[in-house]
Amino acid sequence: CSRSFGLGTRIPWDEQYLVESLSDSSLYMAYYTVAHFFHDGDMYRGSTSLLRPQQMNDQVWEYLFCDGQYPNSSDIPSDVLVKMKQEFDYWYP
Asked: Mean pLDDT throughout 52-63?
């Protein structure tokens, strides 16, 4: 849910809109199911990331969170993608 005023998080690609705060918290919880892959297992230590932000395109997110097709063009190792998908599916069956 989005709007142009009130509480929420601004959408990076269109500052006019906010993601409503309840939707925002739902997105964060989904993200946290795979966040440890970005921080070598420890998001508080500031360790080196296993993945680069550029690798996380729409096709990868669709695969992980929306049961989209496997992103064959991704350069993320297949074992990592499959494990990320399993992590999300475990918490959001």
From this structure: 93
